[in-house]
Amino acid sequence: MTLPVETFFLHPEAQGTLQQQIQQMIAQGILSGRFQQGEKLPSTRKLATHLGVSRITVTIAYTELLANDYLTSKGRSGYFVSENAPAPPTFAITPEGQDAVDWTRAIGQKFSGGAAMSKPQDWAKFRYPFIYGQADPTLFDHTNWRLCALQALGQRDFNSLTTDYFDQDDPQLIEFIARHTLPRRGITARPEQILITLGAQNALWLTTQVLLTQRRRAALEDPCYPALRDILSQSRCHVTPVRVDHDGLPPDAIPPDTDVIFTTPSHQCPTNATMPMDRRRALLDRAREMDALIVEDDYEFEMSFLKSPSPALKSLDADGRVIYVGSFSKSLFPGLRLGYLVGSEPFIREARALRASVLRHPPGHIQRTAAYFLSLGHYDALIRRMGTALQERRKVMEEALAAHALRISGRGYYGGSSFWMRAPDHINTDDLARKLQSKGVLIEPGRAFFAGTHQPSNYYRLAYSSIPTSRIREGVDIIAHEMALTV
Amino acid sequence: MTLPVETFFLHPEAQGTLQQQIQQMIAQGILSGRFQQGEKLPSTRKLATHLGVSRITVTIAYTELLANDYLTSKGRSGYFVSENAPAPPTFAITPEGQDAVDWTRAIGQKFSGGAAMSKPQDWAKFRYPFIYGQADPTLFDHTNWRLCALQALGQRDFNSLTTDYFDQDDPQLIEFIARHTLPRRGITARPEQILITLGAQNALWLTTQVLLTQRRRAALEDPCYPALRDILSQSRCHVTPVRVDHDGLPPDAIPPDTDVIFTTPSHQCPTNATMPMDRRRALLDRAREMDALIVEDDYEFEMSFLKSPSPALKSLDADGRVIYVGSFSKSLFPGLRLGYLVGSEPFIREARALRASVLRHPPGHIQRTAAYFLSLGHYDALIRRMGTALQERRKVMEEALAAHALRISGRGYYGGSSFWMRAPDHINTDDLARKLQSKGVLIEPGRAFFAGTHQPSNYYRLAYSSIPTSRIREGVDIIAHEMALTV
């Protein structure tokens, strides 16, 4: 490959003769890793014209670089970065000027340092990945997804999808959600009451920005999805964690001055508790009394394989008080980044305006691909297949856990894709996870799910959404063995 | 199509006998447009099992609905929504409960009502679309984009792309930007100094959130990109508009207590002025004196077809003071939503953490498709093709404007894709645009670009990025004619 001449610039501030400047520019390109061994340089004629200097100047610079073994010449085929040229130390320690900016001062608002959990990027290479929320490639219908993507890339769709939608969504996807997805949760909504988001994360973020300010109060399940706690703490509203029980969030424990209640009624995250119908009604009553809003994160309803799911909290809401968060990320794949919000029109209008300001709209091609995948019935088929697989894995897992008397602290009444586990008090699951990782086992320590600074450290989550059935028993054996070693 | 039985729920709060409830549920489904004419209902047996009621109850409900002509029966093939069933009035006026929520109070922060301009969604159907920033399907290399998308959808890529990246980007795209795209602007950057965003809009939004607070001051070009003004006003920082001249932003006019300066040096938006090198240096000096940061929006550098572009402001920045915003949306297509930020590591770290909280990461498939399209050289070829077409259109347009003595107020020294026009003082270009729209001509009134409340109303923008060369003359004729009629 020839290095494009357009990437060569003489720095207007550079010192020295033109020949030196050219020499320096090329050497720095090599040192910084921009130009790599074996790559061809532009001809002297071309570079001279581009830089507006004489050809002899470039030739002398090249000759100097030849002498220093930065370049080699291969006769008529030109100049190349030498195999012996100094390799950049690593990309990370490129020599560069010290910033004159005091970033501690310059940064107006800090966002880093949240509790959000991290998984090894290469989790799929681990033999026993009991991790949550990652797609299992063996279950996903890759062929049909690809066909739907192709259809959405066809000339006719393409012309409409390349357009800037501004604040609009793909009408086909919206229609499908309104007519087919939401009715399965008992929800009726008009297109103006639905907003497509970049996953459930984005839906929760938009909701928080619209509803909460520094003066307002949110109630949050404890334990809960750690990224939600980060979103709320960034919004600087007052947050009260409310400890969940085996039925999920207890309405009576919500402080009376709460403005917004965040809850996960279908599968409490992470305990998997399903809120019974009576409590759902009690929660709505409680919210009505306090004139509070409820944000219902229905992140995993499709994983109900043990029993038909009960209708969403939103379906019981006659007041417009519930904002519903849905997601396709768990059932399709998380890298897709596709979710949605359902709520009253004044709320959706503000969320839409904010979304337009932040990112305009989720990419059109992805929305259309999902619309095809859903409307051609592939999604339903996928959910059935996943249900069967998860049910089987869950059974194997329950047996394996029972065999070692590992204690399950929460299991979904309707299924789900994980168990919430409680280790003996003396076990620190952060340490346990670290030790297990070196043995090929990934588990999720539970500490990050809890609020406050004195979080219990003996909980952990074991998901069965990404691990093949055949490895479950062996993986659980290793966990139990490692735990037995810890005294 | 048979309506899936899962979409049938009995409302726990419903009144009346079970048979009445079922009847009501179906009728409401039809009235709300959820069940449409000709669609098949679940069999009485299936629905009875699903709802946990006796089959005779369902049969009686169906019979009642038959009598009311909501349903028809086709003998053994079952029950269908009748052709004579009452059609939903329109989707928009579905009967629904009045919200008990006072949304004026419940919404903590309002985001709607910004100045952001809107274009007709069906702009492509207009014969003379002098509108800005939309892709021209005749120039885009649809075939190769499709091939790259297919490659990115292949099994190997797919497995890696379906993963949740958390806060990471596609390493292939980052590498290409670092090694090829940025060097063309004279910029050297390490991967840790680059963040992929959902378009330039998202890059500007993230930057604003990280750098500006209610106590800080931003300087903004006037006129400027209206959505940027919205972003800043939402951040509630102090904003000083600085009037640009024919060389862009004048450094001396920037107030000395400014924290962050927003500028578009390569093609000032909307006047197209290119900032000369001397002024770029003066701007950096001025920022250094004040210890201010500069946000350089290089939104259109690829459109330099009259002359090689000068290196970016960022390339002259030894202090780490410049934050660079790049975008592929103008040159590929705006629906793509793909841009990037380049800046010092402490800044990028915060922007990355904020992005993770807001939306995690731009969808992996789109990042990988772009990486292929760029690295296979299709992008460069596209830019060349666009340059040729734009140059030709610009020439035709200049002639047409000259023929009618329409006054150009700003034209890019390096090219660009639009002219900034000044109509006679008595012309209100909002009115003009409305009148022209009914004649098939789309222009952009200039008012929204200006700050304050007494914006000049006689400017407008004429873009040539989406209109075929053959229609330019005719379109300009209509504009001139309409303007001559306005007294």
What does this protein structure show overall?
The structure is a homodimer of 487-residue chains. The first copy, chain A, has 487 residues and is α/β, with parallel strands linked by helices. Chain A has three domains: 5-93, Arc Repressor Mutant, subunit A (Orthogonal Bundle); 123-135 and 381-485, Aspartate Aminotransferase, domain 1 (Alpha-Beta Complex), CATH 3.90.1150; 142-379, Type I PLP-dependent aspartate aminotransferase-like (Major domain) (Aspartate Aminotransferase, domain 2). In chain A, 38% of the residues lie in helices and 13% in strands. Chain A has 15 helices and 15 strands. Chain A has helices spanning 18-31, 44-51, 55-67, 103-106, 142-152, 155-161, 171-181, 199-211, 226-235, 277-290, 345-359, 364-375, 378-403, 429-437, 469-485; strands spanning 71-73, 79-81, 128-129, 194-197, 217-222, 238-243, 260-263, 293-297, 322-327, 339-342, 407-410, 418-422, 441-442, 444-445, 459-463. In chain A, the strands form four sheets. A seven-stranded mixed β-sheet of chain A has the order 4-10-9-8-7-5-6, sandwiched between helices. In chain A, strand 5 (217-222), helix 9 and strand 6 form a beta-alpha-beta unit. The longest helix of chain A is centred in the last third of the chain and has 26 residues, at 378-403. The N and C termini of chain A lie far apart (60 Å). At the A-B interface, helix 4, helix 5, helix 6, helix 8 and helix 9 of A face helix 4, helix 5, helix 6, helix 7 and helix 8 of B. Chains A, B: Keywords: Aminotransferase, DNA-binding, Pyridoxal phosphate, Transcription, Transcription regulation, Transferase. Chains A, B: Residues 16-84 form the HTH gntR-type domain. Chains A, B: In the C-terminal section; belongs to the class-I pyridoxal-phosphate-dependent aminotransferase family. Chains A, B: This is Aminotransferase class I/II-fold pyridoxal phosphate-dependent enzyme. Chains A, B: One of its GO terms (molecular function) is transaminase activity.
